[in-house]
TrEMBL record:
SUPFAM superfamilies: EF-hand (SSF47473), RNI-like (SSF52047). Residues 434-469, 868-903 form the EF-hand domain. This is Leucine-rich repeat-containing protein 74A. One of its GO terms (molecular function) is calcium ion binding. InterPro entries: EF-hand-dom_pair, EF_hand_dom, Leu-rich_rpt, LRR-containing, LRR_dom_sf. Pfam families: EF-hand_8 (PF13833), LRR_6 (PF13516). It comes from Acropora cervicornis.
């Protein structure tokens, strides 16, 4: 019997009597053939083995399960929700699931479904909280699946173990050609594990945004020398310096398959550029090279040009955002023009200054090579020069924009004339990059008769001149001064000053200073709505600013709406702080609309904005639609239970948000249940702050039930929520089973020392718990608690526990609510379980354990999570530094600590 045949037709033989023949012809599976035949004539053959048939049917059913059935069964076995998008895409050639927060368990189910899938060739799992466990599952699937050719696991922390698994798979798998492991937190030394195999047949490898460093760059150079398949390599943003650039250049000399190489945003400097130039002299196969923002100047440019003079294969060169300015740009353009055999077709000079000599040289290059493309803020193609960031542009280049304005306004003008004000307003609405002075000059050119009005016939005349210019009937340059416009890109500072002047608002000198930097910090400046609007208009097209802080500026709905409208157009700002202002329903609706259009904003702080639960519902709907936010601070508002339930409903579907703060929001038991429902399903959130609400014991029980299901949360703050001993037992229940939580803050709750003991015992009962820090501020710590803590520290030496009050026996110690800094330090050293020599080595890691400076001491103690403020740590260091030279040697460190420890012990005995 053929196991692959799923159907058959039962036809009676000629020898069978007519009355004994079956009356129906039916389509049957192999396991049904003989059964129907036996039923039709009522006889049973002694030679027929029904046991074998039943076994075959079970294997048949298991083998012929669809990918959807396998996926759903695997999800049910692991008790995780299925992803409907994955089920819809299983029958296509592309699985696209970025930012879904699937996690390792979800990847196990996905891998099981794809193991025997023949349709899918591209798999995108970017930013899905994968670890080496999920990477291992994908690898095992790819060993069986020979059809997937493209895999993207960017922004997942797969680690060294994950890379090792991928290497083993690449040795066996010959179908995977495109691998993306961008922004995966890979550190120096990791890539060596991936590049050990000699049989890797990848064509595209994306390693952008890691921290591979020079060691892995050397390994990559060696890999390039022997590899015969790689065609595209991206190692940008990887902290590669001269040593790494030299190794990659050496590999480039020997490689004859690589077509695209991206080295941008690595500090290779002039010497690294020299090595790349030397490689270009030898390599005859590379077609695209990206050395953007690599820290070299005119000297490095000259070295790369030397390589370009001997290279005819390179088609695309990206060299912008380096330190060569207009002179370097002129040398590049002139060299390309002079090299008649040079195959360069596209040149990128992003953020480079082009003066008039550069423009003239570029114009000549365009005439000689009509298909040449140069990018410098805008595209320059063929003979149509339209440079957005140059200082001078010919008058004729402005005519197309004027023509567009004519066509736009022709049907709307009730009269056939326009004055200066309407002219300026119309061109401003069309986003023509001209200042007020430049618009006045252009109006003077159009107003031929000088009567202050431009008629429609004059517009038509300008349009005809524009057409003639496009046909080449006008000269390239007009040397008469009155026909030349001095045009430049309007800076945000100029736009801001213009808006302030027209709005009668005093400009902020601090904003003018910070506008060209990445951070605009205007906290407590009293800008108001008008001042905020002026700033927003200036920032609409600004590419520099990424962080905007407007805390406590007296901003109401109008100002918040202006910020939201700006963020709809600006794609560079990633962090906004609007806390301490008044955000009403209308402003929240506008912010929600912005989040559905903006894809770059990651961090939003709208705490202390007097928001109510009724007004936040529309905002939460935008969160359900996978807004780009990873950090959201809603603390110190009054959203109450209604708002908490809306947020809980939103985070059920959100697969992007990492941090959520809803502290100080009057959330009670009902709201806690709403948040818990969201936490049960959410697999993305890493930190949640619900402190200073009235959750009570019932509310914390709901949170506990959610955390029994949630295995993604890392930090939870439930401090000051009126939790008694009953609620502590609920917290202890999820501590015993949870494997992901790392920091738990339960301070300022009325459960006292008994509850502290319960929590410490629960930690001991979960050996697989990831908990490394327990904060119990304002909780009494007695002798029993100390004993339980010692048991925890025996198993977990790095565990941190903080509290404020200690009781020895039945007598309260001399330790006050805010104990002496020395006592805090000694208690910290004791609870960490470190010997003094170990602590000193940790603090002086960068100085090879010889001397300890004040900055190293403060930084090291903060990294160890010491519960001491920075200024107190500095005071502590000054006390240790007996000779006052700003440096502590090991002997001073040990003697001081021992003396204080002995005096503390004597004081406790007395």
């Amino acid at each position: 019997m053929d196991p692959h045949r799923s159907t058959d037709v039962k036809v009676p033989s000629e020898s069978t009597p007519f009355e004994n023949r079956p009356h129906e012809y039916t389509v049957m599976r192999p396991s049904q053939r003989y059964t129907r035949s036996l039923e039709s004539d009522g006889s049973v053959s002694e030679d027929y083995d029904t046991d074998l048939e039943e076994s075959f049917e079970e294997n048949y059913n298991e083998y012929h399960k669809t990918a959807e059935e396998v996926y759903l069964q695997s999800c049910a076995q692991q008790a995780i929700p299925s992803v409907s998008r994955f089920l819809r895409q299983l029958c296509t050639d592309t699985i696209n699931l970025p930012h879904y927060g699937i996690g390792d368990n979800g990847i196990l189910a996905v891998s099981a479904a794809l193991e025997r899938n023949f349709a899918v060739t591209k798999l995108n799992l970017q930013d899905n909280s994968l670890t080496h466990v999920g990477a291992k599952a994908l690898v095992e699937m790819l060993k069986e699946n020979g059809f997937i050719s493209q895999l993207d696991i960017a922004e997942n922390r797969i680690g060294a173990k994950g890379l090792e698994s991928i290497r083993e798979m690449l040795v066996e798998n010959t179908s995977l050609q495109n691998l993306g492991i961008e922004n995966c937190g890979l550190h120096e030394g990791y890539l060596c594990k991936l590049l050990k195999g000699d049989r890797i047949v990848l064509r595209v490898l994306n390693l952008k945004g890691n921290e591979l460093g020079d060691e892995d760059a050397v390994a990559m150079g060696s890999f390039m020398e022997r590899n015969k398949s790689l065609e595209e390599l991206d190692v940008s943003w990887n902290a590669i310096h001269l040593r790494g650039a030299t190794a990659i250049a050496k590999g480039l000399k020997a490689n004859n398959t690589l077509r695209t190489l991206c080295l941008s945003r690595n500090s290779i400097s002039n010497k690294g550029a020299l090595q790349i130039g030397e490689a270009l002299k030898v390599n005859r196969y590379l077609q695209a090279l990206d050395v953007t923002n690599c820290g070299f100047n005119e000297i490095g440019v000259e070295d790369i040009l030397q390589g370009l003079r001997a290279n005819s294969a390179l088609k695309v060169l990206k060299i912008g955002r380096n330190n060569f300015h207009d002179y370097g740009a002129y040398k590049i353009i002139k060299s390309v023009r002079k090299l008649s055999f040079c195959g360069l077709k596209e040149l990128h000079l992003d953020d480079s200054t082009l003066d008039q000599e550069c423009i003239q040289e570029l114009d000549k290059l365009m005439q000689e090579r009509p298909g040449f493309i140069c990018r410098c803020g805008t595209i320059i193609k063929g003979k149509a020069a339209a440079i957005g960031e140059t200082k001078y542009i010919r008058n004729s280049d402005c005519r197309p924009k004027v023509s567009n304005f004519c066509e736009h306004s022709r049907g709307n003008l009730t009269t056939q004339r326009v004055d200066h004000d309407k002219f300026a307003q119309g061109l401003t609405r069309l986003s023509v990059p001209l200042s007020k002075t430049q618009l006045q000059k252009l109006f003077g050119i159009l107003d031929a008769d000088g009567d202050g009005l431009v008629r429609f016939q004059e517009f038509l005349e300008m349009k005809q001149q524009t057409k003639k210019h496009r046909k080449g009937k006008t000269s390239s340059y007009d040397h008469e001064s009155e026909n030349r416009l001095e045009i430049r890109k309007i800076t945000p500072e100029e736009i801001y000053l213009d808006v302030c002047k027209s709005s009668d608002v005093a400009p902020s000198s601090r904003f003018l200073k910070q506008c060209s930097s990445g951070n605009v910090e205007l906290n407590h400046y009293g800008l108001g709505d008008a001042g905020t609007r002026a700033i927003c208009i200036a920032l609409e097209g600004c590419a520099n600013v990424t962080n905007l802080q407007l805390h406590d500026n007296g901003i109401s709905d109008k100002g918040i709406i202006a910020v939201a409208k700006m963020l709809k157009k600006n794609r560079y700002v990633v962090k906004v702080d609007l806390s301490g202002n008044l955000v009403d329903k209308k402003a929240l609706d506008e912010l929600a609309d912005m989040l559905m259009q903006n894809s770059t904003l990651k961090d939003l702080n709208i705490s202390k904005c007097n928001m109510q639960g009724k007004s936040i519902s529309a905002f939460c709907k935008s969160l359900r639609l996978d807004a780009p936010l990873t950090y959201l601070n809603l603390s110190y508002n009054d959203i109450g239970d209604k708002g908490a339930m809306a947020i809980g409903s939103a985070i059920k579907c959100n697969a992007v948000l990492d941090f959520l703060d809803v502290s100080w929001n009057s959330i009670r038991v009902k709201g806690a249940h709403g948040l818990a429902e969201g936490l049960k399903i959410n697999a993305r959130l890493r930190e949640v702050n619900i402190a200073w609400n009235g959750l009570l014991d019932d509310g914390i029980s709901a949170i506990q039930e959610a955390l029994l299901c949630n295995q993604a949360l890392k930090v939870l703050d439930v401090g000051s929520n009126c939790i008694t001993n009953k609620g502590v037992f609920a917290i202890a229940r999820f501590i015993r089973t949870n494997k992901s939580l790392e920091v738990l803050k339960t301070g300022r709750n009325p459960f006292q020392s008994y509850g502290a003991c319960v929590l410490l015992r629960a930690i001991q009962k979960n050996p697989s718990s990831a908990l490394r820090e327990l904060q119990m501020d304002d909780i009494v710590f007695d002798k029993d608690c100390a004993r339980e803590l010692e048991l925890v520290l025996e198993e977990r030496p790095s565990f941190t526990c903080s509290w404020d009050i200690s009781i020895i026996g039945e007598r309260k110690s001399d330790q006050t609510k805010t104990p002496d800094i020395t006592d805090i330090y000694l208690a910290f050293v004791r609870t960490r379980g470190l010997r003094l020599i170990e602590l000193f080595k940790i603090l002086t890691k960068d100085n090879v354990g010889q001397r300890l400076s004040k900055e190293d001491f403060v930084g090291g103690m903060k990294k160890l999570n010491a519960p001491i403020h920075d200024f107190k740590l500095r005071e502590l260091f000054d006390m240790m530094d007996a000779n006052g030279n700003g440096v502590i040697v090991f002997q001073e460190f040990v003697l001081w600590t021992r003396e204080r420890h002995q005096s503390s012990a004597r004081a406790s005995q007395s």
